[in-house]
Design brief:
The protein is α/β, with parallel strands linked by helices and 164 residues long. It has a single domain, classed as Phosphoglycerate mutase-like (Rossmann fold). The chain has 4 helices and 6 strands; from the N terminus they run E-H-E-H-E-H-E-H-E-E. It has a 6-stranded mixed sheet with strand order 3-2-4-1-5-6, sandwiched between helices.
Length: 164
Amino acid sequence: MKTLLILRHAKSSWKDADLPDHDRPLKKRGQRAATQMGRQLAEKALTPQLILSSTALRAHETAELFAAACGYTGEIVLRPDFYAAAPPAYLAVLRELDDAYLRVMVVGHNPGLESLVKLLTDRAELMPPAALAYVELPIKIWAGLQETVAGRLVDLWVPAKDEK
């Protein structure tokens, strides 16, 4: 069995209206939420073996903060094809992974991530900023990941409300 952790980027800043969407950074609230979610995963002993992230600044920052908080020491692999991606883009990358990876995390954007959770688990779930879905996949090899796989949504965590 393989495990897929699906993390939506944390809350981003719209402070600089001249910045291209791809280059928007995290708000302070988003930074706290990414760290909180990383700590939560570490407490559950679910640190990923590999993190794949969109190249968008807000997603990459989320991945970096999350990784530091959960004890991930590997490289964060940046994937330009995850920016504004639909599920087929994620599946194509995952199918190419080394089968030694049992637990992998993808960091990206909505609506693609909500669609990915729905596709893999047949569960429609909202993924607010910094939400993390924990999905078990009934596959032995990543190449076996198909759109019809009957994955199981084990849990979905959202960061605690932060009024700042």
